[in-house]
Structures are given as structure tokens and as C-alpha cells.
Specification:
Elements: H1 2-15, H2 23-53, H3 64-72, E1 76-80, E2 91-94, E3 105-114, E4 119-122, E5 130-132, E6 148-150, E7 157-165, E8 168-171, E9 182-186, E10 191-196, H4 199-207, E11 219-223, E12 226-230, E13 240-246, E14 255-259, E15 262-265, H5 282-296, H6 300-315
Parallel strand pairs: 10-11
Antiparallel strand pairs: 1-13, 2-12, 3-10, 3-13, 4-9, 5-8, 6-7, 6-9, 7-8, 11-12, 14-15
Helix pairs in contact: 1-5, 2-3, 2-5, 5-6
């Protein structure tokens, strides 16, 4: 989609000889335009909820809420949280980030922890994408597909794809390079949601026997780039998982050479990144990018026209 958007933007600009936008400027404008539209999804979702509550929304093909939900859910993630260095006596987990989960956090939706105790052991054989342990019975222990396998190393884990025998599990990724490595299996059938509390009240909660956090009623606070989970017995990688929405990846239109004086689009470049928005929002991207282009080349006519089109679209 990004090449189609760029061709449209250049076509509009070149129609009246307004000027040329370089690939680097186009990529910067594309990033801002995508972020604007992304944040508008949440505002539109709020509007559709209000319309639904007022019995003014449609159904079936007129169900705007479902359309907005589908767009938002492109950016939904459900990932394990890595342990972080914190104050002694606290269970500290890192918020989702490029270094921990591979993406940038927009908003946390829900934090859960798995309540069943971890199963531990030592592998007795090395087979790619498998966990073999002849000293246990995985079936008797209740291991099922979807359970989490870790090696105790922060951020390193695999998912159980299948239980092929009492002593063998097929994993989503390869974890074991030698025999005798310790593993931990976190069952995922039972879990509890961890409620968020403000930093200003957590100490008061902990001092009361009635409201003190427990494994039955866990809580967390947000402190900088970390989440502090209470009670501190919830302290192992693999126990805590976050449902959240990430920011879209920065779009990048890539090229390799000049053809007729113009850069030639090449999506095989390693840093190529298309827009992550639904295809139906291509015209919104063009409109917003052209607004930025108008500001860049100081053409008020472009900005005014595209702003008018945007207002007209919102009113309709």
C-alpha cells in the first residue's frame, strides 16, 4: 500500500507543479499520518459505544463498532512480561518495549498471572523443537498444548504445540542445545486478572489485613518502565502476561536506484515497512500526508483543500 500512497501523493503535487517530496520526507510524513489515524480509531470506538448506548447505531453492514474493532485489533498483542531489576522484595516486570517484546506499548488492556505452580525438571535428550524427559510423565502432570516452557532465562520461552508421549513434548521453538538443562513448565489453564492500583494507595492496601494483595486478589502498579506486582510471590518469568495495544511500526518506502531521475521502489530492502492500517484507510493516509506536504512546501491551498476533505469525511 505504501507505494500506491506515495504515487498518489506525488501525482497530486505534480498536477500543479507544487514541488517534489523526497523519500525521507515522505517517510516522516507517513509516520505522523499513520499515528494520527491510529489514535483516531480509539476516539471513533468511543463514539460508536456512545451511539450504541443511545440506541442510535446500526447492525449488520451498518455496524460501525465492528469495523473500528477490526482495525484496532490489528495492533492487539498478548505477550509474556520479562523480569526487570527492581527494589529488593518487589516483583518487577518490564512493560512491553522494543527490547523486551519487540514492539512499542500504546496502552495496557489487561495483566494476568497463571495460578498453577510451575513444573520443573531436566531434559534427558536433545531433539530440535522438543522437550524430552524420561524421568517424568507429562500426561500425568497435566501438561497440555498452550502451556509455556522456559529455561529460567529471561525472555526465552516456547509454547507446547503437542504432547506426543508421556516423556516428550513438541515445542514451538527450539530451547535445548545440550542434555541436562533445567526447564520450567507453566500451565496456562487457570489464571487471574491482576488489578491496577495507583502508587498513592498501594502502601495503604498493603498495611491492611483486609485489603493486602494476595494470590487470590493480586494487584500491580505502574512505575516508570516497570510494573510492580503484589504479592512478591508472583516473581517468575512465564507467570505474568500482558494484553495490550502496540503502536504501529514506522512505515518506510525503500528504494535502491534511480530510474529516469527518480528513485525506484524496492520492497526487498531489509528496512522496508508497509503501512499497517486497513486498506480502506488508504485515502485517509493520502489526505493527511498531503497536508504535511502542503506545510512543507508552504502551499496553503493544499492544506486548506485537504483539511476541508477531512472535515467533510468526519461529518459524513
Amino acid at each position: 500500500m505504501i507505494n500506491s500512497v506515495r504515487n498518489t501523493v506525488l501525482s497530486v503535487l505534480n498536477k500543479n507543479n507544487y514541488g517534489y517530496i523526497s523519500p525521507s520526507d515522505f517517510n516522516l510524513f507517513s509516520k505522523q499520518a499513520q499515528l494520527e489515524i491510529f489514535e483516531d480509531y480509539f476516539k471513533e470506538y468511543n463514539k460508536t459505544i456512545n451511539l450504541e448506548n443511545a440506541r442510535a447505531s446500526g447492525v449488520d453492514y451498518a455496524d460501525q463498532k465492528r469495523i473500528v474493532e477490526d482495525a484496532i485489533e490489528i495492533f492487539a498483542e498478548f505477550r509474556l512480561l520479562s523480569l526487570s531489576v527492581g527494589i529488593a522484595g518487589e516483583s518487577t516486570f518490564s512493560i512491553p518495549s522494543p527490547t523486551t517484546t519487540g514492539d512499542v506499548l500504546y496502552v495496557i488492556n489487561k495483566i494476568i498471572y497463571y495460578t498453577d505452580p510451575m513444573i520443573s525438571g531436566v531434559n534427558t535428550a536433545v531433539v530440535i523443537n522438543e522437550l524430552d524427559d524420561t524421568s517424568v510423565d507429562f500426561i500425568a502432570l497435566g501438561v497440555v498444548p498452550g502451556d509455556i516452557v522456559t529455561t529460567g532465562v529471561n525472555g526465552v520461552f516456547a509454547i507446547v504445540n503437542s504432547v506426543t508421549s508421556a516423556t516428550r513434548l513438541v515445542l514451538s521453538t527450539n530451547l535445548f542445545s545440550s542434555v541436562g538443562l533445567t526447564y520450567y513448565i507453566q500451565p496456562t489453564r487457570n489464571f487471574k486478572e491482576i488489578d491496577k492500583v495507583n502508587l498513592s494507595v498501594i502502601n495503604s492496601l498493603r498495611l491492611s489485613n483486609l485489603t493486602s494483595p494476595s494470590t487470590m486478589f493480586p494487584v500491580y502498579t505502574h512505575r516508570g518502565v516497570n510494573l510492580i506486582v503484589y504479592p512478591d510471590s508472583i516473581s517468575s518469568f512465564g507467570q505474568v502476561r500482558a494484553s495490550y495495544f502496540r503502536l504501529p511500526n514506522d512505515p518506510k518506502w525503500t528504494y535502491t536506484s534511480l530510474v529516469g531521475g527518480q528513485p525506484s521502489f524496492d520492497q526487498s530492502q531489509l528496512d522496508y515497512q508497509d503501512f499497517e492500517l486497513p486498506l480502506e484507510d488508504e485515502y485517509k493516509l493520502c489526505t493527511k500526508i498531503l497536508q504535511y506536504c502542503g506545510l512543507s512546501i508552504r502551499e496553503a491551498e493544499i492544506v486548506q483543500y485537504m483539511t476541508g476533505k477531512e472535515i467533510q469525511e468526519k461529518q459524513s
